[in-house]
Inverse folding.
């Protein structure tokens, strides 16, 4: 892989702000972002990407190609937690294997947004409908994880208690109506309904300011990720390797499917990036609610302190390098 791809990605200002946040923790700086603001940054990014995706979808419409791309996204979100679970059972108990598998089966919206910014920087086109693909990939892993937790809890001594405490209505509500999914779907629908006119009216806020807000968000993410790094020494080398190797494997599977089903280069890259990402917001919230036996000190540091930094610094250029080799 050309070192230029890595340098080009890392020298992207929002990525540099991420590392600036990490360095602040390592150097014991007092830098911090007041707590209401990170949530505002998250809401802004979700609305911006949803609106723009809806606008793009309103232009392209829904055809066989788009349906194929969306179906591949759902397939990957369902497949990844299945084989991840059985790999993780080598070292983890049922509940922690379920939580980590669900985490890696779902996606990171910020990783997707960073990948979109990368494609825009190098001038590669992609379909706005990939925002819909990202939205569809949020929930299947949560559902699969909870199904696995129910099925493979049969051998545990407190199985009856687990079954009694399983509130499927609340679980499904959390899977399909958690805030990030709800806001993305809502913004996507608004973008579709308002089309060109709606996007033009919102573009000064959600278009021109997008990279600046992303820089603020990644600065905060750098602070949070660096604080989580200190928890990694408790996890063991197997899980650290998993947190890097699994995203690469997942992205490779997605690339193969995208190549076979003839997705465009930009769409294939985003599908691979989504498949290789891991959730650190939606799934952890769902797991805390639905699988309280799982330890957040395992699945959260893995996704946030290992996979997320790896993907936005090295994963993005690595996946694009192989996409470029396959697509030419």
């Amino acid at each position: 892989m050309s070192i230029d791809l890595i340098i080009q990605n890392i020298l992207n200002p929002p990525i540099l702000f991420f590392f600036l946040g990490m360095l602040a923790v390592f150097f014991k700086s007092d830098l911090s972002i007041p707590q209401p603001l990170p949530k505002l940054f998250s809401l802004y990014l979700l609305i911006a990407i949803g609106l723009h995706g809806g606008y793009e979808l309103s232009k392209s419409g829904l055809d066989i190609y788009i349906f194929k791309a969306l179906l591949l996204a759902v397939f990957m979100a369902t497949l990844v937690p299945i084989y991840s679970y059985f790999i993780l059972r080598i070292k983890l108990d049922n509940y922690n294997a379920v939580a980590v598998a669900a985490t890696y089966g779902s996606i990171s919206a910020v990783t997707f947004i960073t990948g979109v910014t990368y494609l825009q920087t190098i001038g590669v086109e992609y379909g706005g409908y990939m925002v819909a693909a990202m939205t569809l990939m949020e929930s299947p892993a949560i559902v699969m994880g909870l199904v696995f937790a129910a099925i493979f809890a049969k051998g545990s001594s407190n199985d009856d208690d687990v079954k009694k405490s399983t509130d499927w209505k609340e679980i499904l509500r959390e899977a399909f109506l958690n805030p990030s999914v709800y806001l993305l779907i809502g913004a996507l629908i608004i973008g579709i309904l308002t089309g060109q006119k709606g996007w033009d009216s919102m573009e000064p806020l959600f278009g021109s300011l997008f990279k600046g807000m992303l820089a603020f968000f990644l600065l905060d993410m750098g602070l949070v990720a660096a604080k989580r790094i200190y928890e990694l020494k408790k996890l063991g080398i197997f899980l650290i390797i998993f947190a890097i190797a699994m995203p690469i494997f997942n992205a490779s599977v997605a690339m193969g499917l995208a190549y076979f089903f003839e997705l465009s280069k930009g769409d294939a890259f985003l599908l691979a990036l989504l498949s290789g990402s891991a959730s650190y917001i939606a799934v952890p919230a769902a797991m805390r609610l639905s699988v309280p036996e799982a330890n957040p000190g395992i699945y959260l540091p893995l996704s946030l302190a290992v996979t997320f930094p790896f993907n936005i610094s090295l994963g993005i250029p690595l996946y694009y390098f192989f996409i470029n080799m396959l697509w030419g």
About this structure: Residues 296-327 form the longest helix (32 residues). The chain has a mean pLDDT of 86. DSSP finds 16 helices and no strands in the chain. The two ends are 14 Å apart (CA to CA).
